Each structure stands twice: as structure tokens, then as C-alpha cells.
Amino acid sequence: xxxxxxxxLLLAAxxxxxxxxxxxxGRAALTIVERDEVRTLDPAKxxxxxxxxxxxxxxxxxxxxxxxTSDLRLAPAAAEAMPDISPDGLVYTFKLRPTARWSxxxxxxASDFVYAWRRMMLPDAGADYVQMFMAxxxxxxxxxxxxxDLKRFAGDASIADRGAESARLWALAMExxxxxxxxxAVDERTLRVELAEPLPYFMDYLGFVSFFPLHERSVSVHExxxxxxxxxxxxxxxxxxxxxxxxxxxxxxxxxxKRDMRLEANQHYxxxxxxxxxxxxxxxxxxxxxxxxxxxxxxxxxxTDVQVPYRADMLEARAxxxxxxxxxxxxxxxxxxxxxxxxxxxxSDPRTTIHAxxxxxxxxxxxxxxxxxxxxxxxxxxDVRVRRAFALSVDKKEIVSEIRRNGERxxxxxxxxxxxxxxxxxxxxxxxxKRARQExxxxxxxxxxGLPPIEFLFARDGGHxxxxxxxxxxxxxxxxxxxxxAQVEGRVFGExxxxxxxxxxxxxxxxxxxxxxxxxxxxxxxxxxxxRRFADERYDAMLxxxxxxxxxxxxxxxxxxxERYLIEERAPIVPLxxxxxxxxxDAHRLQGLSADVRQEQHLxxxxxxxxxx
Length: 613
Known about the structure:
This protein is α+β, with helices and mostly antiparallel strands. 35% of the residues lie in helices and 17% in strands.
């Protein structure tokens, strides 16, 4: 065994040494390894966890989650205090900190929030989280009118001067925004937001990355009007150093694609005491073994994902340590300590550097619901009976116990059970091959006859191949269908899913705020995260009715019914399991990580005492 492991360790050592020697700027106070590279630092475009994690360091919203509180309450960030809220719950008035500064030293202004939020509301931006902004008065009509104008423009070949007409339509959109949308910079430090209807979790929205401000002057110079489509376009140059101007505790000083990023302290940040580390290096290492070995050699402080084939063995070694100290673990747990705090109270042991922490996320299958496939052929998954047949023939327990092997829970619904107080997610569709075959026969495909080969799309990394093979066996055995596995590079995978060029794909979603709608809205008609192209008037109406319900318990019950209808009756999504996030770090060294289920981590609070800031 040592003869096999030694070359791997040597290769990992050479890789880490090569990266470190070429890093520039000196050794960082904190080193993190990510499996996936950061894809974008444009708040309108980001949906990936690693992007959002960095964004929380280089930008700052009006409020942020205080991870030091047991209930994760919100605290003022760019705002100097929590807002004044009108008695009817419609108008929120924020006062910005007079000391809030961008990384170039300029003052953060209310107009910077207006600029960023307006951009999110434009169909031109194609923001995945645009639906969150529809809570603001007039935002829906502004979005729809702009979309209609662009559609008419694109389809009218008789327009002689397309540049002039696109400029006219843009000016019209800006005029409508100013008069119709409930978002105003009252003065340099005062921002007023007016909602269409009271929204009990609106403040949770404001802590999310989509509501971060943008430095208008540095972003707007990269704007242009596309005379062919009439759309406003933004080149991505402003998201890269040295052009990126942020207002968060840290600033981006280096970003080398698929290699590394370096963050350093924003010297103009209003509260420098929040920064526990003055510099952070984030390395991208796609190879799972190299990630683990880089940590074991002591060159890395935190590995954010562990996907090695021997992960289950590492977790079992940790479990053995916990059994050795079971009495003390039980005492500490009764005191209310979380897993990380318990580790710090126990003897230091290398077995405890792996951490499996339940997270606010679910692994599921997308079923494309559009009437036609990308090839133009009829889509069998447009028939709900075919979707239910495939859902009912998945052995989720096998995936969790035989493939994942890290204590994750089988998923009935999208919302992880117990993650939101008072909410009861559905039990979902279980493993029922007999009913699955009946559903497929009723759709006209008895025994799989008449169905075209079904392509299952998934990305190369992350162990998705083993899950894909299990699904392939299930569907062949139980339904008699031909399954073709399409394994592609991660970026290609994302592009194909976003453009609807698939039949079934793997998918995952992590909640962004503490409300069921953070999971349920992604299947709403027109939502930019609705990669399934699922459209159902009844489901949309159920979500709308819940949004108008003022009784909190009744509202959660309505949302539970909506999720039950989505998963058990319409089945555009097949939940497989609720994630457990597996980290590598030494709890006796690294400080500042949160064990909360939402897995929100603030990079600027992480540090290793004695290593230097």
C-alpha cells in the first residue's frame, strides 16, 4: 500500500509546491482549497457556492447574518442600523454608514444600491435571482414592459436605425424605472424601498449576494447597447482585478483561472477589526486526492469539499474516535455545543480533521419538461406519467448507503427536514417499481417500448458518475429503457442545463435564506433558476396564495402543500438526498467556521491563531 500511496503524495507535494512558489504576494495568512474554480464575481450571474462565498468577502449588503449568534440573526452591515419599517410593512428606509467606503476609497452611496438592483430587474441582465426583486413595487411591470419592448425590437426588421431605436427604448426603460418602481435614493445615504405587498422574509433577501451594491462608475464604463437585440450588455472585465471595486472587508488582488485567487484586506473598509486574516489564498485543485494530500501536508488550512473514494473510511475513523470519547461527547452535546466546538473540547487527533456537517441543500434530478427536445424531437418527459415512472424507479437508499456513505439522509422533498422551524416537507415518491411500470404503460411506453434512448447528463467531477451508473441500472432493470450516460466538463454541463439541452440531469440546490420559498421558487414559471422549463398554473397559484397569507403557520402549511404537489404529483424534480458537506480542517487550529446547516461562511472571519494576520 505504501508503494502505491508514496507516488501520489509526491505528486501532490510537487503540485502544491508549484502553486505556492508561483503565488506572488508572499504566503497568505490563510490558505483554502476549492474543487471548483470561482466562475463569476458578478452578483447578477452567481449561483455557485464558491462564487457566493468569495462575494461575501469582497462585497457587502445592507445587512449580513451574524454567525456568532445562535439564531443567526441579521445585523447591520453597509447600513448603520436596521431599517425603519412602515406600520403596514411596505416601506423600508435604510441609512448607510457615513464611513462605508469602496475599495478605491470612494463613499458607498444609496445610488450604488439603486444601480445594482435596477440592473438585476432588467431582463437584459438575465439574472438567475431576478424573481426576488419582484417583491418591490412596480418591478414586475418594469421587467415585463422592458421584455416586451426588446421582443418587438428584435422581431421588427423594418427598423432603419437600430442604434437610435435601441437608445430610445433604453431611455424609456429608465424613465419607467424612475416613475414606477419603489426604489429610491432619497439622498446619498438614504435608501427607500417600497414593496408591492408585505413580505415577512424580505430582510433575509437583503443579506443575499443579489442585493449587494455595485460601484456604478467602474461597472457602467463596461456597458453598451447591442443594436441587433436592443439589449444592454455588460462586458465581464469589471469583475477582474484590478478593475473590480468592492465594498466588502477584502479586495480581490489576483485571479488566475483554474489556478488561484488572492484576497487582501480592504484598507478602506469601515470596520477593520472584523478582519481576522489580512490575506487569503484560494487554490483551485480539481483532483480530489491532491486536495486531501495538500491538507495532510499542512500547506492548506481548509479544504471545502472531500470527494475521494476513501472518504467513507475517513469518516469511519472519525466515528471510531467519537466512540472512544462517547461519554464526553454526550455531555458536550447536552450543553448545546455544535460539532466544531465539541471537537475543540476533545483531544487533538488527526482522525477528527474530517467534518461531515448537515447542510441546507438537496441533490436531485432535473427532468426537462419542454414539449420538444433540443434536437426538435418530441420530449417524452413532457408527459407527467413518464416523469413519475422514472421517479418511482429510483432506489434512493442504495445511493445513500452504498455510494455516498457519509450519513446523508434520503430526500422526500426539496427542503431538508428540520431546517425551517414549523415547516413539514413532503414524504415524496418512494421506490415503487410496480407503480412505475404502470405509469410508463399508461403513457404509451409499456416495457420501455417506443421510448428513444434517454440521455442522463452529469459533470465529470464530484462522484456523479457512480450515481449515474446506479440510476442507469435502476431504470434499465425496472423500466426496460435504454440509458445513455453523458459525462461532460463542468462548464459545459452548466451551459447545457441552462439552455435546456438535456433530457435528465443531475442537479443540486442550496437554500439562500431561511424560508421554504428559497427551494420552491426555482420551479415557478419564468424563474431563471427553473432549468426544467416546468410551467404549472396551479403550482404558481399555490405559491402566490401563500405569499398573501399573513398567518405564519397557515402560510407554511400552504407552502408544504405546494411542495407536495410539485414533488408527488408533477415530478419535474426527483429529490435523492440531503447533502452533508464534508470539510477538512483542524478545529484546534482554524477558527471562525460555522457548523450551521445553512453553511454560510464568512472568509474574513477565518484565521489560524499564531499564523499571522
